[in-house]
Structure formats: structure tokens, C-alpha cells
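INTERNAL AUDIT FORM
Audit reference: QA-55
Scope: verify that the stored structure record matches its stored sequence.
Auditor: D.O.
Record contents follow.
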Amino acid sequence: QVQLVESGGGLVQPGGSLRLSCFASGFIFSNYDMSWFRQALGKEREMVASVSPSGGTTTYSDAVKGRFTISRDNAKKTIYLEMNNLKSEDTAVYYCRSGGGTWGQGTQVTVSS
């Protein structure tokens, strides 16, 4: 069945970095856009970044532009989110989503001193 599994979340100090991964299975990964979303406590889920099937086109929310980088490895069926200069407002559960509408289970990122 179609499945997305995120990993790499954790606790980091402000200004620090984390790299999230999302492994996909059960569908032709290289055919689909892939995205990262996040949801902070008490807030709506929001799109953070997306990447085209080839990896050649990426988009970012204004909140993370210049700090986060989305990428993919189609051979490994995995997308990544490199997060630098993290801020307390980046604290959230991060989800990956396939272009077919499947969601992962989420991974918690907490930015705190």
C-alpha cells in the first residue's frame, strides 16, 4: 500500500539545523510532486516546500525561503528537508505529502533553548 514515513525530527536550539527525510513506498515515486507541510499547536497545517517529480523545480513558503531546502532522490524514493537557522516559530509537526494525496504520520521538530 501507499506509505510515507518521515524521520529526522528532534529538539534543536535556535539557530541550529536539522534534516528531515521521508521515504515513500507503494507508488511510482518519480511521477509525483512531493511536499512538506507543518502544523504548529493550535494552528492550521501549512505548506512549507514542494518539489517537482524531477527535482528541478522547488517552491517555498515565505516563512522558510532562504533557510530551508527541499530535495529528492528518486532512486532512493526519498525526499529531504534541510532546515537551517531554525527559529522557535518553526516548532511544529512536519508532514510529507505525495502529489497523490497521501500523508505521512509526521515528525516533531522543536526549536528551543
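Auditor finding: record pair retrieved intact. The mean pLDDT is 97.
Action required: none
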